[in-house]
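Record 1 of the preview.
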Amino acid sequence: MSVRAAVLGAGSFGSCLSILCADRGHDVALWARDAALVDAIATRRRNPRFLKEIEFPASIAPTTDLAGALADREMVIVAVPSHAVRDVMARAAAHLAPDALLVLAVKGIELDTGKTMDAVLEEVLPEPFHPRITVLSGPSFAKEVAERKPTVVTVACREESYAIAVQSYLSCPWFRCYSETDVIGVEVGGALKNVIAIATGISDGMELGHNARAATMTRGLAEITRLGVRMGANPLTFLGLAGVGDLVLTCTGDLSRNRRVGLALGRGRKLDEILAELGEVAEGVRTTYAACQLAERLGVELPIAQGVKLLLEGAVDPREGVTLLLTRQLRGERDWNYPTR
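->
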């Protein structure tokens, strides 16, 4: 079944999802702010900044006109950076079709408020849209999605029927979606795995070995679960695609921007220099600050995330950060209910 779809954001993930939608036979409007980027996609059928080697199908119509992109669209995929979600969707609200399905493909926590992306949408969109807010997450590098390599993700919505609808619109022989109702768990898993990927990259950049990598990922999963459960998530969600699946991919895959940031930090490079060279958003940097603020408010301890934050701020060097983690007070492995310090 084909639908009229809009994809907001022409970065790596917005581009690959627009290609996926076109492959599924959907009529696709791809919106971006940058007129030069839109013109390049329209004329050359290539994105000159992201996924440069991938050709865009003819059924994708790039535009800078937000109202036009959203007109009569049955499915709207939001793929802008997390810090732009509030502004873009506040402007989009007046132009959404009344029955539009909303698909959040953004992995982050809002820095100023500590809100997950679905909570941001609930603040800026009228109440009738709230039940149709879905969240797409899981192990999915944009390049591999655009190359039609096998990918499996989760689509979450509190009203499962809408998750199933999105599942049916996006699934194909090489892109499989599972439905889920734990929106909070899927959001927290998708956001915080980027922080743990920075930490794992730091460990690998320092050449601390496979033992350290495994420990960072495992204890990182404990931190993600701890915060998610405190926010109301089902702990089993973090054993699924949006939890351990995405964590493994982002911490170990060479295509991971957040892992690359960590690798460079572990080798002694400066954050500003790393981000300038990266040329894309590494969501884990902002999410580190947002997660630490949120955890402090909720009384949840995130020692790895806090260590990453200290390193990003320049308060410690990588070796000092590792020492702080390894010399913390000894505890039971599943001792989650201790207070923050």
